[in-house]
Amino acid sequence: MEILLFILFFIGLLVFLGKKSNRPRGGGALRQRPVQRQHTPPPKPFEAKTASPVSRPTVLEGPAYVVDGDTVRIRKTQIRLFGIDAPEMNHPYGNKAKWALLSMCKGQMVRAEIVEEDAHGRTVAKCYLPDGRDLSAEMVKIGMAIDWPKFSGGIYRSLEVPDARKKLWLADARQKGRMHVWEKFEANQNKRSSGN
């Protein structure tokens, strides 16, 4: 009888220890096998010779949101019209230039053929209306922008209306590098707005 009790005690002890060994140390859940991870090699160092920029679309098409007289936004991309300069919004004729461009683009699907990204990180494009008209050329023809030969190669200069450069004198001054004219204009604007 003692031997039978000893055997039962021994079997109970083995069962108890067997259940205890399947539990994780922190709680009562069963242990899971570790997940095998694939070994990935370390990344290769950057090589400028073989690197290339991410390609951007070369043509965007869609309705154009007009920002100012020489800037539109198509599909969340802000686009500077190629080869022209229109007055800034706070400069003389700035609002008129914006409204002129808006009247051309309203209800139209504008096609923007991306030319480059300028020094300020803006996308520059030749933009066309569905009938094939070049928005840059149209803005110059109506006297709301002037040709910027440094960027256009002078292709819009012959389209400028007489005295356009006199009317858009701040844009002309910027092209000629006379930024002191801009600064003087801005200072006068600030004096007027502050009431001095």
From TrEMBL:
Coiled-coil positions: none
Keyword Lipid biosynthesis found: no
Superkingdom, taxonomy of origin: Bacteria
Molecular-function GO terms, alphabetical: endonuclease activity; hydrolase activity
Pfam families: SNase
Alphabetically ordered keywords of this record: Endonuclease, Hydrolase, Nuclease
PROSITE patterns associated with the record: TNASE_3 (PS50830)
Region Disordered: start-end pairs: 25-53
Gene3D superfamilies for this protein: 2.40.50.90
Matching SUPFAM superfamilies: Staphylococcal nuclease
InterPro entries named among the record's database cross-references: SNase_OB-fold_sf, Staphylococal_nuclease_OB-fold
Residue ranges occupied by any TNase-like domain in the UniProt entry: 66-184
Protein name, entry field: TNase-like domain-containing protein
Lineage: Bacteria, Pseudomonadati, Pseudomonadota, Alphaproteobacteria, Rhodobacterales
